[in-house]
Amino acid sequence: MAAASDQTTETYRVACDVGGTFTDLAVLSSDGRLSVFKAPTTTGDQGLGGIDAAIGLAVDEMAAAGVDLPARTSVFVHATTRPLNAILQGQTASTAFITTRGHPDILFLREGGRTSFRRHIAYPRPYVPRRLTFELPERIGAQGDVLEALDEEAARAVLEDVAQAGVEAIAVCLLWSVVNPEHELLLARMIEEVLPGVPFSLSHRVNPIIREYRRASATAIDASLKPLISRYLGEFERCLRGRGFHAELLCASCTGTMLPVADVATAPIHTVQSGPALAPLAAVKVAARSDEAADSLIVLDVGGTSSDVTVVRGGALPLTSEFWLGARFSGHMLGLPAVDVQSIGAGGGSIAWLDSGGLLRVGPQSAGASPGPVCYGAGGVEPTVTDAALVLGYLNPEYFLGGRMELDAHAALDVIERRLAQPLEVDAVTAADAVLAVAVQQMTDAIEESTVSQGLDPREAVIVAGGGAAGFAIDAVARELGVSTVLVGRAAPALAAYGGSVSPLARDFRRSHMTSTATFDFAGVDAVLQALTHEAEAFLADRTDEPGTRELEWFVGARYGHQRWEVEVPLPEPRLHTDADVAALVERFHTAHERLYAIKDPNQLVEFITWRVRASHISPAARQSSARTGDISPPRTGTRMAYFRGHGRLDTPVIGGAALKPGRRLEGPLLVEEPATTIVVSPGSALEVGRSGELHLSVGTGVQHQRFSSPPQQVTRSR
Amino acid sequence: MTSSITVQPSVMGDPALLTIIANRLETIVREMINTLLRTSCSGVLNTARDFSCAILTRDNRLLVFAESLPIHVAAIELEGRVMSDFHGDTLAPGDAFINNSPYHGGTHHADHTILVPVFWRDEHVMTVCAKAHQADTGNAKPTTYAPASLDIYDEGSVSLPCVRIQRDYHDDDDLVRICRQRIRVPDQWYGDYLAALGAVRVGERALTELFAKYGSGTVAEFVEDWFDYSERRMVSELSQLPAGSWGGDGRHDPFPGVPEGIPLQAKVSIDADAPRVTVDLRDNIDNVPCGLNLSEATARAAALIGVFNGLDPDIPINGGSLRRVDVLLRTGSVAGIPEHPVSCSSATTNVADRLVNLVSSTMATIRPAYGQAEGGLGTPASRAVISGEDPRRQGARYINQMFLGNTGGPATSDCDGWVTFIVPVSGGFCYRDSVEVDEQKYPIHVRSVTVIPDSGGGGRLQGGPGTLVEFGPATEAPLRVIYASDGHHYPARGVLGGLDGRAASVELIDADGRVTPAPLVADLHLHEGERIRAGTCGGGGYGDPAERSHDRVREDVEEGLISLEYATRVYGFIAGASSPERQELAL
């Protein structure tokens, strides 16, 4: 580590998140102070210009406070969108796909499904074209038995064809390699011999699950990113070193953890979708540092073009193995478990329009950052959610983005009037309110879907808000859902970057090994758990001299005998030696299933499929973070006319975020203006400032939410 | 993004509420679907997603369905009517009814519908439905499609004409025992029943919350406003169609009991003044002595799917838009209203698929800029119901429908055919099975699953390709395979100059590798080493092949989706020549 040139002894964790509009940098000191810096995202240079600018802002400002940030930074975390953008823009490496003979169309036929049966959506192209797909004579059976041995001579011929095709990477996914990887490993040795230097990925290593499409998709994505990620990380590191940073570089992963650069280079797929995965992690920290004792959190991150929703129960980030890159059924499935973030096309830039039957609709089209809402005055012509918010008086036209941009209130009013109010035969304010109400409902629906799929009553949860456009919506969203408390952390406008600064270093190790309660394979399971534990310990072995806690956690995906989808259940320790151990595990499975789906079936056979070990290294700073922030915005006060549903236009107090000191309590109606967001507090709601400076918005004070007793949901089998 | 709209009646003058409640209802249905998908037991549900959910108004008009199979839901209000007729006087909170009777609004015996009347303040306000295709329904033979059945007695299914299966949220154990007695692998059936029940209870709870929030008066107004809106969309759409009558005919392949096949007629009439559209199916032959007869629900739904395939996809299909469509059916017709004991065992696929194709392609003729060709047909051996005993699980019995092969989708006015289309009645909603999951769950070995080159019908837009699937038993235990395939004699036709898709094929391969043709309708016991190889239909093409872009032809050749020979013959493609578009640009 570089020698300290300043007088303090603090160290810093710096995290960088590249978004569509802004590149955010979070700087977290070892005593828990947080600063956030934003620079416009740059395009055409892989975003490096924006990153460098944000770093420059941070370095200069910290230097002014007497801190040599580059020298004092111990860890630099990067959540990169580079791999995802490369996939969506088709800029990944030309990749060959090698698979079992007779099954060349795994990536083309996928798993079926469609969102509409009507004629207007084109069938997606496969991730790897059919012309770069190669069939290998070999076959392993469901029990791991070799039905057809790999013919090495034929394999060599296939690899020579691959070489002829001039690809830059190779993805290998052979059927049943997760049960018996012999053929994939043999082929790997041959690739190294025949095509030395060409990066390749093996499916049983990238994503050891059964279901060939998901495994193949993950493998193909992984291989196609390998040439690019090495180049990109090299350039990123040069940019960092150029600024004088010598800290260890870590990359955020799609499971909300950090990985060393070496691991990312061998499995770059883990960095896809890493930014959105960090917001839920940040929300967990925000909630933990507040005084809210909520077991369940709803994380709502509202950006310019979309809103991300995640439901977090018991502090554990929910994972899904059905994450789509691009549209559902038309994009590509990530295949790998990723934090379950549901994204909907309702954000500040979403366009409001009337269809041919006169129905008001919001999105999915968005004005994006460019041209942006009409009020930006940058050429936008369609009314957006942000224009509606301006018409309602929620935004200060002179203090948008801390005064860096002036909004054209007249243009916003005019477009709402012409495009919506007149055809609807209502006044502009009513039309604007309707636009916001529809956007709010879309967010509410997305939350409802997420909570139902996790068996959660949203009224038992706390909402944690993030993103620049969340402030217009959260009060109303909470009311709709019957949620009484919304938390807005001081890091809210840069939630993901903050998440990066507090994320643990962690990696998952998985293996498929099927057994059931009928004849539990004690020896086999023990061997799998020991092997996984060994791998996990080896991963942590490099970190033995660093301060922090090392943790191992064990899980298994289980299901009822006839089912096909698994529910993951934690194992308290990696030991299943007796019938009693298995019985305890089965009991935990029944409980988890009932919580998720309201039913359990105690007499059914239970099958165990995928075993997982997570190895984590949690640094002391990540544990202690209190997310205090040095707010540089001037306090603002005054009043403004703002419209509230059910109350009409009210002369509403406006207060600057910096004026909100811990312990202060304010009643709605109220507008809190911060540089990157405005928080709307309705009449009947109240705002209280928590000990870390986070805002607790209590909605519906004094209003009884109508609750009723649900019909019995518990269904247990009786024979 | 339209202007000059003046008419906008909405819920109590709140322009947002119509959108909000409509979106909310759709979300509720998606929540029901998610519950059913995740908790069901049989592969046909939890992997292939062969189920649907919908909400009806109290007076049995279709209010909403989302991401559901159109054949299941387009006429599901018939089942609500039967529930009202049988139980209207005694409906109570906590009731659940089960229906699979094709004479009582059901689609076919294999589809079990659970209906729950939803109450708000002691009043029946809506009905939620979940319809799920069962892995087994107690047919005489282990298949959920028994096309050779002479009548309901020959089918042998348990038949449940909208009977009460729950009272006060508790099962009628007697009825459950009756079903368990007859249905193979009863635990699987009961698990699937619980999953469907869980889905409707989730819907019930969510709807009760909706009423609690908005009150029954507002919701009632919403319903009428929403139907009016949907009808307005329909009126503006239909007014763009030319007036007149168009006849179409088609034919289902020869089958046991119908050696000449089944000829089909549909007449589509557009009344431009009303405006409304009428599909007349009355001029079809009488019921046939096999399981291919349509039920009233599937005849009506197939005609409706065909109509909506030719309209703006954004128009909601519900009681409002349906006010502008008439489907005329004749009692006693193969594509009409069957009477007990006519068998409708395969009513959701074969003839229904033909009818969807017939009406869709007729709509394309009426408005060429906006329609689709015929989609690939049949329930091929690669989607057979398989059964037997699994030696790997101590001889445990299994039965399930596989979903490995897809037929190619029809080319449309906008796109080449959807590849994982399955069949016209499902429109691509169903998922495909994973080979690995199937091999893990059942003792089968899937040797290959490949797309068939040159199988999509040529056209300006090309039909989707068929797939070739080869499979057999993985162990010494015999594998029973039952299927009833269509599309061998009469493939999916192209429209407006587009060519027909490839016909279906099916072959047996014995342990020594000898290949022989397999029957099109079969109940086979495959032994170790034996395989079946089924090729599915491609979809029909749309428009003149000469108008297809050269770049797309070249790409298909490079991708191996069509051969160079096919490209030359059908598209006049010359390898190496630059495309006409590029030449024009160069000028």
Describe the largest sheet of chain A.
8 strands, mixed
* Average residue-wise pLDDT of chain B: 92
Oligomeric state: heterodimer
Q: CA-to-CA gap between the ends of chain B? A: 36 Å
Helix content of chain B: 25-40%
Major sheet attributes of chain B: 7 strands, antiparallel
Radius of gyration of chain A: 27 Å
List the total number of helices of chain A.
18
Return residue spans of chain A where pLDDT drops below 50 for at least 5 consecutive residues.
1-5, 625-634, 701-719
In whole angstroms, the N-to-C terminal distance of chain A is 68 Å
Q: Structural class of the helix and strand makeup of chain A?
A: alpha/beta
What does this structure look like?
The complex is a heterodimer of chains A (719) and B (587). By secondary structure, chain A is α/β, with parallel strands linked by helices. Helices cover 32% and strands 27% of the residues of chain A. Chain A is built from 18 helices and 37 strands. The radius of gyration of chain A is 27 Å and the shape is globular. The N and C termini of chain A lie far apart (68 Å). With 587 residues, chain B is α+β, with helices and mostly antiparallel strands. In chain B, a hairpin with a 4-residue loop joins strand 1 and strand 2. In chain B, helix 1 packs antiparallel against helix 7, helix 6 (173-182) packs across helix 7 (186-238) and helix 8 runs parallel beside helix 9. The interface between A and B is large, with 88 and 115 residues.
